[in-house]
Specification:
Length: 320
């Protein structure tokens, strides 16, 4: 009950977070991600700037927007007009967060940085095992892109971060990764890699590929959940709304399959959308299984100097 009250007050004070894919596509098929594990074809739909602005208009009428994460299961840098979306939000004083693997991209990075997103994140598993952990990626492409991007001007409105996904066989690359981050003035955040498809974690519907990936994780989902302090009546996703490039609402950013597509954001009031999300039968199973807390692997980088530690203190038993 206390968590629910905090969530309600938090939305009133801080606002609602949105996770919006402006393109239904990703260049990679990472085995830890729903795209690589589940593989639903999304069609590559690009959101129009007109629809983006209609979404923001409606959202601002119905709530305070805390921030917009411009990705759930996509790389927003595939959208050639990414900078226009960021500019549109910035004019409304809305913070935007973007993340990329620096592989196939179609945006103009100079214009993207000039538009001043709140965070420009590079997602990275190291060089040696990149082709496995980010299937479809290659080190040559990454190194070429980083030289193009990391020489761009820095603005105080934008946090530049390097998120290193830690597995049981890439920790030896950490010293080089730290040097890389320091050389390019990137905030380095090391996060334990997790298995992201929440529906599989909750329903234990693992493929052989999933099980093979688990051998590379620091701990399996079940091992992690067994150590958690479960919060059975609350989920962080109730403070968020996840949309795809058609403005279709998904149950949350943690699930990917078509069965979790609920309604179009433009057709229902936000309060009704959130009510239907909270009352969805899958949420009951997820809360009971601890899937909601498993996915809280780090806190907001802009608000924490130790995002993994801060998240863990909330997640795990015995940590202070």
């Amino acid at each position: 009950m206390l968590d629910k009250l905090k969530a309600y007050l938090g939305q009133k004070i801080n606002g609602v977070s949105f996770n919006i894919d402006i393109i239904n596509a990703c260049p990679l098929r990472c085995p830890s991600c729903a795209i690589g594990s589940i593989g639903t074809k999304r069609g590559g739909k690009r959101m129009t700037l007109e629809l983006w602005e209609r979404i923001l208009d409606k959202a601002q009428r119905e709530c305070k927007i805390r921030k917009i994460q411009m990705y759930a299961y996509s790389d927003p840098c595939l959208h050639p007009d990414l900078h226009l979306f960021i500019e549109s939000a910035a004019k409304r004083k809305v913070k935007t967060y973007i993340s990329t693997m620096l592989q196939a991209t179609r945006c103009d990075f100079a214009k993207v940085i000039e538009a001043r997103p709140a965070e420009f994140r590079i997602s990275f598993p190291g060089w040696r095992h990149m082709e496995y952990y980010q299937r479809g990626a290659n080190t040559t492409q990454f190194n070429t892109k980083k030289e193009e991007v990391l020489c761009l001007p820095r603005h105080p409105e934008t946090l530049w971060s390097l998120v290193f996904h830690l597995y049981n066989d890439n920790a030896d690359e950490l010293p080089i990764v730290r040097q890389f981050a320091e050389a390019y003035k990137l905030k380095l955040v090391v996060i334990p890699a997790i298995f992201m498809p929440c529906e599989k974690v909750v329903e234990k519907n693992y493929s052989e590929q999933d099980k093979e990936l688990f051998s590379h994780l620091l701990e399996t989902p079940e091992e992690s959940i067994s150590r958690m302090r479960l919060r059975e009546d609350f989920c962080m996703c109730w403070k968020q709304v996840a949309l795809d490039a058609n403005a279709d609402v998904y149950l949350c950013q943690l699930v990917y399959e078509e069965r979790f597509k609920m309604m179009n954001f433009m057709d229902y009031p936000l309060k009704e959308i959130q009510r239907q999300i909270r009352s969805h039968p899958f949420c009951v199973k997820c809360l009971q299984a601890g899937g909601n807390v498993y996915q809280e692997c780090y806190a907001d980088f802009l608000e924490s100097d130790d995002p993994v530690g801060d998240a863990n203190r909330k997640r795990y038993k015995g940590l202070k």
